[in-house]
From TrEMBL:
<keyword id="KW-0408">Iron</keyword>
<dbReference type="GO" id="GO:0016020">
    <property type="term" value="C:membrane"/>
</dbReference>
<comment type="pathway">
    <text>Porphyrin-containing compound metabolism.</text>
</comment>
<feature type="transmembrane region" description="Helical">
    <location>
        <begin position="207"/>
        <end position="227"/>
    </location>
</feature>
<dbReference type="InterPro" id="IPR036927">
    <property type="entry name" value="Cyt_c_oxase-like_su1_sf"/>
</dbReference>
<keyword id="KW-0560">Oxidoreductase</keyword>
<dbReference type="GO" id="GO:0046872">
    <property type="term" value="F:metal ion binding"/>
</dbReference>
<dbReference type="Pfam" id="PF02628">
    <property type="entry name" value="COX15-CtaA"/>
</dbReference>
<dbReference type="GO" id="GO:0016491">
    <property type="term" value="F:oxidoreductase activity"/>
</dbReference>
<feature type="transmembrane region" description="Helical">
    <location>
        <begin position="59"/>
        <end position="76"/>
    </location>
</feature>
<dbReference type="GO" id="GO:0006784">
    <property type="term" value="P:heme A biosynthetic process"/>
</dbReference>
<dbReference type="InterPro" id="IPR050450">
    <property type="entry name" value="COX15/CtaA_HemeA_synthase"/>
</dbReference>
<keyword id="KW-0472">Membrane</keyword>
<keyword id="KW-1015">Disulfide bond</keyword>
<feature type="transmembrane region" description="Helical">
    <location>
        <begin position="264"/>
        <end position="285"/>
    </location>
</feature>
<keyword id="KW-0812">Transmembrane</keyword>
<dbReference type="InterPro" id="IPR003780">
    <property type="entry name" value="COX15/CtaA_fam"/>
</dbReference>
Length: 292
């Protein structure tokens, strides 16, 4: 199905943008252009590395926006697609518009932590909405989407936990708290330092990361023993590998003093973990209706 391919490709492109954005910040390019939507009053400014990163992110995000709009128009024009995907497609447009507004505010508010974090959170919602459309299109009976009763709350808690952990990671970055603790797994030699200044952001992110890891491992263990759906088990097993890698990436970021590429990969892997758990939840929640 064309709509399936379109939204799966779009999901991949947005996922790439999830590492592009953090790299803009990691290279201190976020305010290379002090104005918006132009850059130093020009659509195509004089290029430096920092301007290339900032303007490149803008152009790429604009390209993604056109694809989201294209998909939305195609769904509106087709009665069958409109009946199945109107709600998530409309949400994708809402998240797109809010993402543009938040992107502008991120520049005009001089990288204020609140706008930066909301910009990241909104990007995640746009990503999940596009992935949902692709998954629904993949299923032949996308309109027959109902919810199982068993373990619903566990899967919802898992997704909310990962999204909140990514949000906490954004707070660490936007408040420049990545090196608030120079050691790992302790902070200045203790597991429970005084939560003052930027140390609070760093330790909140670490502690909640351990909780999320336990949620991933626990949900996967539950699925192995209690859930029959092989797709759910497969994707949760992948999530276990990804969350283990994520802990290692977090440790290496501290130990090696925040290498730029490694910080981007850390964010990318976090979002990949979320996507895998989202797909597992999708297959858990979806079950065919019994035909009478």
């Amino acid at each position: 199905m064309k709509i399936q391919r379109l939204y799966f490709i779009l999901t991949g492109l947005i996922l790439f943008n999830m590492i592009f954005g953090p790299l803009v910040r990691a290279t201190d390019s976020g305010l290379a252009c002090p104005d918006w939507p132009l850059c130093h009053g020009k659509f195509v400014p004089e290029w430096t590395f920092h301007i290339f990163m900032e303007v490149g992110h803008r152009f790429y995000s604009g390209f993604l926006g056109l694809i989201v709009l294209f998909g939305f128009i195609n769904i509106l024009r087709d009665a069958d697609l409109r009946a199945q995907f109107l709600l998530p497609a409309t949400l994708s447009m809402i998240f797109l518009i809010s993402q543009v507004i938040l992107g502008a505010l991120t520049v005009t508010k001089l990288l204020h932590p609140t706008t930066v974090n909301l910009h990241l959170l909104n990007a995640i919602l746009l990503l999940l909405t596009c992935l949902l459309i692709g998954l629904l299109a993949k299923e032949k009976k996308a309109t027959e989407f109902i919810f199982q009763v068993k373990a619903n709350y566990l899967f919802i808690l898992l997704l909310v936990g990962i999204i909140y952990q990514i949000f906490l990671g954004g707070k660490v970055s936007s408040n420049y708290a990545g090196l608030a603790c120079p050691d790992f797994p302790t902070c200045y030699g203790t597991f429970f330092p005084e939560l003052s200044g930027t140390i609070r952001y760093q330790m909140e992110h670490r502690w909640f990361g351990y909780i999320v890891a336990l949620l991933v491992y626990g949900t996967a263990s539950y699925a192995i023993f209690e859930i029959e759906n092989k797709q759910v088990k497969k994707y949760l097993k992948i999530a276990c590998y990804l969350i283990t890698i994520q802990i290692l990436l977090g440790a290496f970021n501290v130990i090696y003093q925040l290498p730029k590429l490694l910080t981007g990969v850390h964010t990318l892997n976090a979002v990949a973990t979320l996507l895998v758990c989202f797909i597992a939840s999708f297959y858990h929640f979806r079950t065919p209706r019994i035909q009478k």
